[in-house]
Design brief:
Structural class of chain A: alpha+beta
Order of helices and strands of chain B: EHHHHEHEHEHEEH
Strand order of the largest sheet of chain A: 8-5-7-6-10-11
Number of strands of chain A: 11
Low-confidence stretches of chain A: none
Structural class of chain B: alpha/beta
Number of helices of chain B: 8
Strand order of the largest sheet of chain B: 3-2-1-4-5-6
CATH topology of the largest domain in chain B: Rossmann fold
Shape of chain B: globular
Number of domains of chain B: 2
Mean pLDDT of chain B: 93
Distance between the termini of chain B: 9 Å
Mean pLDDT of chain A: 93
Distance between the termini of chain A: 47 Å
Radius of gyration of chain B: 17 Å
CATH superfamily of the largest domain in chain B: HAD superfamily/HAD-like
Strand content of chain B: 5-15%
Largest sheet of chain A: 6 strands, antiparallel
Oligomer: heterodimer
CATH topology of the largest domain in chain A: Alpha-Beta Plaits
Number of helices of chain A: 7
Largest sheet of chain B: 6 strands, parallel
Low-confidence stretches of chain B: none
CATH architecture of the largest domain in chain B: 3-Layer(aba) Sandwich
Chain lengths: 255, 193
């Protein structure tokens, strides 16, 4: 098996894997029948901006998942996964530009609000003993945390909301308009079955930029990003006790 | 008629149901859960009813969030048109492939399929599409039933036969070959021509 698929399965294996979203530039009934091979069914499709098609697939078997992940790492399409309904061992902050006229070709690294938020949020998480895996993604960045055991969604959400609020406050203190960014936190109990996130290891559908790892505000190349991803999985998967401690600290601190 | 000719895209709001009527006539109650002042609540509601768009520079705004909340209520309250239900069942019985094609954000509105099934409206696929003419062109769907003036005006230029339920706001637009109907029975006849 492709070692990249093994890494993805290990990192994201705690999420719902029997349903997923596939993002592609391919379309048409013939293509649809191809991706619906096996027992898969289509919940719905979407034609998004930039002529990108998205397909939410249900009843994805383990073997079909492997095939789809191969297409993912081969760059044929992107696979996005959904969080579990009760508890998860990963959580993610989506840090995006909130500007309608965001220029995908320029990238988020030229957006000062997003850059400031990335620095503040990554710094806060590190300070709390939870170094994130930061990845470039379209309008901004995804900051993942991974734990050795599943954590109730409400605890993850409460922690994430506090961290996001502190980030927005820090943005304000730095003289930026915090309305120009948005921070989505996952898992969010309100949208647990409707919000999915792209897995590491592909190019964004809009700007075709790889999901580079960002370390100390520096973007790693593709090969180094895979290496770091493997290192993070091995070395930085944090104990739940660390999250509990971080939750206590962030709850007691003020913005 | 070939198999590819028997594929049809059908809109939901104001085509299969009475969305605009519900939006216009429902008395939405102020609730603190909207996290708006009462003044903003009423102002925003008026903006939504008059079809105004959020012209600011930001994607996610207080107004956009409120608009979604109101639309969701309308989706739940809207009633299926009896002749639309009958027409859709006729399509299915007669071997048409039905693609529901809606502006609704299907990530948020997972109740749409339940609504369709509850109203016995058959369909094969459901898609969230903003540019329906482009979608129909890409997927080689030659028939679209939709009330949006944009599609009525531009459908023919892209080889899409557009049929629309005639509403007040259609009086000032050129139909460019699109056909307005007062009953789905008319559409049934046209698509068999």
């Amino acid at each position: 098996m492709d070692s990249r698929i093994e890494l993805l399965k290990r990192f994201f294996g705690g999420m719902q894997l029997d349903k997923l979203k596939l993002e592609s530039r391919q379309y048409g009934f013939d293509f649809l029948h191809t991706i619906l091979a096996g027992e898969c069914s289509l919940e719905y499709g979407q034609l998004a901006d930039g002529l990108i098609h998205k397909y939410k697939l249900l009843n994805v078997s383990r073997s079909r998942l492997g095939e789809l992940l191969q297409g993912h790492v081969n760059g044929e399409y992107n696979i996005c996964c959904y969080f579990r309904e009760d508890a998860n061992n990963v959580c993610c902050f989506n840090l995006d530009s909130n500007l309608k006229d965001f220029d995908y070709s320029a990238g988020a690294d030229r957006n000062p609000e997003v850059q400031c938020a990335l620095k503040e949020l990554a710094g806060l998480l590190r300070e709390l003993g939870l170094p994130p895996l930061a990845l470039t993604s379209g309008r901004g960045y995804h900051l993942w945390l991974r734990f050795d055991k599943a954590v109730p969604n409400q605890q993850l959400f409460d922690f994430s909301i506090r961290a996001a609020a502190k980030t927005l406050a820090a943005l304000h203190k730095n003289g930026f308009d915090y309305g120009k960014i948005k921070i989505g936190v996952y898992p969010n109990p309100e949208i647990i079955n409707t919000g999915s996130l792209r897995l590491f290891g592909t190019r964004h559908v809009q700007n075709r930029v790889f999901s580079h790892v960002v370390r100390d505000m520096e973007m790693l190349d593709e090969a180094s990003s895979w290496d770091y991803f493997a290192d993070y999985l091995r070395d930085q998967t944090g104990p739940v006790a660390g999250l509990n401690h971080a939750c206590d600290r962030i709850a007691k601190s003020s913005c | 008629m070939s198999l590819t000719d028997k594929i049809i895209a059908v809109d939901v709001d104001d085509t299969l149901n009475n969305f605009s009527e519900i939006l216009k006539n429902t008395e939405f109650q102020y609730d603190e859960a909207y996290r708006l002042t009462p003044d903003n609540f009423h102002n925003y509601l008026n903006h939504i009813r008059s079809g105004e768009k959020d012209s600011g520079e930001l994607l996610c705004t207080e107004f956009a969030y409120f608009k979604v909340k109101i639309q969701i209520q309308c989706h739940h309250l809207a009633r299926a048109k009896p002749d639309a239900v009958e027409f859709m069942q006729w399509l299915k019985t007669n071997g048409w492939t039905i693609v529901i094609c809606t502006y609704r954000d299907l990530r948020r509105t997972d109740y749409t399929q339940q609504w369709l099934r509850r109203n016995r409206i058959p369909f094969d696929y459901i898609f969230n599409v903003i540019n329906k003419i482009v979608f129909c062109g890409m997927w080689k769907i030659h028939h679209l039933i939709d009330d949006d003036p944009l599609n009525i005006i531009h459908g023919a230029a892209y080889g899409v036969n557009v049929y629309y339920p005639v509403m007040d706001y259609h009086c000032d637009i050129p139909n460019n070959g699109a056909r307005g109907f007062h009953s789905f029975e008319e559409v049934r006849q046209w698509i068999q021509e």
